[in-house]
Specification:
homodimer; about 325 residues; alpha/beta; Rossmann fold; 2 domains; 6-stranded mixed beta sheet; 4-stranded parallel beta sheet; about 45% helix; about 15% strand
Chain lengths: ~325, ~325
């Protein structure tokens, strides 16, 4: 993995992925006690940054691979990103999703033309299911984070952050990223090493699913004790990726752990102050920026709101925190 | 009023107003039966396009005028736009607001450092109140729409639409704009005459407050029978402006009238499909684009979502339409 792969992905994504805005509000600055910039990836196609990685990978497939089709496993955002990227390339897609994924994510994935295969998150191994179906049906498996082309696609968020923050006069900052398997976090970290070397990436995770934070502290890959039980479904993953972890070790600062309640409050403030819809797992970084000021040292924080695919009932809980 | 005034305003706004994104979703295209692009001005500073007009006007004041301060009357969005523009220029601001304006708008205006004077929308004339206080305290009155510098500021939305739509491959379209007094509608229309001559602007209004639609049809300025009674508070105005109406007459197509319920449904779809927060009056144009397909002829519609300052209780009503 290197910056050239990210720049190549940016070229492939040009005109297809959206350059999402870097938002801000004086009200959020006041809460955080410093300047807060929000990279609104919830405004990306399919409502999350995952479209970038999906497009980055699918756009490199041969005509034969496209004709056979692709397969992905995902709690829902990678599902939609790969489904839309496949559809726009004319390729069939099979998506393996946990049976407890938010309904909106399952429905959208189907509506984007993909075939959805549900599995039991507690008792089945999605990686094994994905690999089995891929083999049986000759599909190309697009992993959600441990895949160089996917990491390169997500890393384009970092290129945009560097350019947009510089335009806003910010070249030194803590960059907080909602972190599941680490594809986005490691991609952004790699991009910033080159394009904004005074920025430092910190993963943000929900309490109980802080595998990356603990792994970084321990210097080795550790797993979470459970596989479900947070409203932050998008970033609940068993452990950091084999590819992503060494990148995060080399380039990231300490992780920040937030509660589900913090995420709901951050969602409410994003609604009120930025007019964006953020899902719980997509709000972890903003929650860290707003409610854990002691974990950061600099004058500016850039928080990536990674997704906005949230059921109305959960969004109402966020509104009730206001 | 001419395009040069809009281009000059764009220069003054550069680096201060946000270039808001042009969003889209295949799901919305499907509902409308054509391509739908959404200019998300709810993502502008203070949550509405009004910051543009406020900045455009305040940035032209002399040092003495800035020292004395400004005054504006507004249901809430112009209030916040002027308040922030004044604050960033170091000028005091007095804002005259109706006593039934959404709480969030009153609170935000105060939090942006402005002095808020409340009036009774049914029995008092805000123009008279504004002019009286302006005279007594030597403040510069910044009218919400019948003011060339304000129209020029709002017109910068049109310049951006022309450039962003062209980048997306769209040069012919119906451009639907939520319309109160007509400052934004006339500004966009003027900008497009020059920069996208194959686009045609249509004002969108709530039923019962369709003064612009009726005035355009009648060829003369007509008033609304009532002054309140729609959830679309941002675009409930007594009649088209004396300056804005002739511009709309010269350059706009027919208006489209939508119901409050249409606006709530459009807000729900903007939440679900675009991940943006839109207020009722800011959703009228999207409602027209999605639910009144027979009113448009072309293959593409560009809808401007003009604001996102909505109380949670009203937003929950929108979520309940999903």
């Amino acid at each position: 993995m290197n910056i050239e792969m990210i720049r190549a992905a940016a070229l492939r994504l040009q005109g297809h992925a959206r350059v999402t805005p870097l938002l801000s509000s004086p009200f959020l600055d006041k809460i955080a006690g410093r300047r807060v910039l929000v990279k609104a990836e919830c405004l990306q196609h399919t409502g999350s940054f995952k479209f970038r990685g999906g497009w980055s990978a699918v756009s490199m497939l041969s005509d034969e691979q496209l004709m056979n089709g692709v397969i992905a496993y995902s709690s829902g955002n990678h599902a939609q990103g790969v489904a839309l990227a496949a559809k726009e390339h004319g390729a069939p897609a099979v998506i393996v999703m946990p049976s407890d994924a938010p309904k909106i994510k399952v429905n959208n994935t189907r509506a984007l033309g993909a075939e959805v295969v549900l599995y039991d998150r507690a008792n089945e191994d999605r990686d094994a299911i994905g690999q089995r179906i891929a083999k049986e049906r000759n599909l190309t498996l697009i992993r959600p984070y441990d895949e160089p082309l996917v990491i390169a696609g997500q890393g384009t968020v970092g290129l945009e952050i560097a350019a947009q923050a510089a335009e806003a006069g910010v070249t030194e900052a803590d960059v907080v990223v909602c972190c599941g398997g680490g594809g986005l976090t490691s991609g952004i970290a790699l991009a910033l090493v080159e394009d904004a070397p005074k920025m430092r990436v910190h993963p943000a995770e929900p309490a109980g699913f802080d595998d990356v934070t603990r792994s970084l502290a321990a210097g080795k890959i550790l797993s979470n004790p459970s596989v479900s039980g947070s409203i932050c479904d998008a970033i609940v993953t068993p452990q950091p990726g084999a590819l992503t972890f060494p990148i995060m070790q080399a380039h990231c600062g300490a992780g920040v752990v937030v509660t589900d309640e913090d995420c709901l409050r951050a969602m409410g403030l994003a609604y009120e102050r930025l007019k964006i819809v953020v899902e719980p797992g997509g709000a972890a970084a903003l929650a860290a920026a707003l409610f854990y000021p002691d974990q950061f040292e600099g004058d500016a924080i850039i928080a990536v709101t990674t997704g906005g695919n949230v059921d109305p009932a959960t969004f109402i809980r966020a509104l009730e925190t206001l």
